[in-house]
Amino acid sequence: MPELDFALVGAEVPVAAAAPTLLFRLQVSNRLPAEPVRSVALRAQIQIEAARRQYGPAAQALLLEVFGEPWRWGETLRSLLWTHVGTVVPAFEEQIEVELPVLCTYDFEVVSTKYLAALESEEGTIPLRFLFSGTVFYEGAEGRLQVAPIPWSKEATFELPVRCWRELIARFYPASAWLRLQRQVFDRLYAYKLAHGLPTWDETVLHLLAAAEGKVKP
Description:
By secondary structure, this protein is α+β, with helices and mostly antiparallel strands. The protein folds into two domains: 4-172, Immunoglobulin-like, CATH 2.60.40; 183-212, no CATH class. The protein has helices spanning 57-62, 64-67, 73-76, 111-118, 162-172, 183-195, 201-212; strands at 4-12, 21-30, 37-48, 80-89, 95-103, 125-139, 145-149, 155-161. Strands 3, 4, 6, 7 and 8 form a five-stranded antiparallel beta sheet that branches. The longest helix is centred in the last third of the chain and has 13 residues, at 183-195.
């Protein structure tokens, strides 16, 4: 059966995408080209290996909710699950390069989003590990179609430039952030907005903050 190897060779924000997406370029190699690959149903778990980079004071402050106080990071700094993705690799013999699209969320209730947002003001890279699984369909003896699983040991690392994440956020969420509320909380906030004649949600939240600071009447 084919012996496949995987390597991430690049990443970019696609020019035309309906949803926030990072596009990784994945190189797949077959050590046994005498057994051509017909296709691969590929899956990948992507982890953020947080311990493999340094963090400035601003990032440390923003990561307090994720890893706790920096003096505890020797115990708490750990890998984070980012997402699961999948794609179909077409037929090839020795090597092929395919696109691996990753849909991204800016929901701050997701731990990986909190981590990525904390790095937006920093430079450097985001250390990632891809853990691969799936099924290989290949041409065996006498041209017969054979099926085999991808071993769980197959993985690859990649250093995603922080600028890619910044570019993604700037394109899809310019100067904004998302906050999900329980319906009861939203209804109370909406009632407050109407009662005070506030035209936007930004002004509603600012009015509440000013009230909490004693600058306006609630």
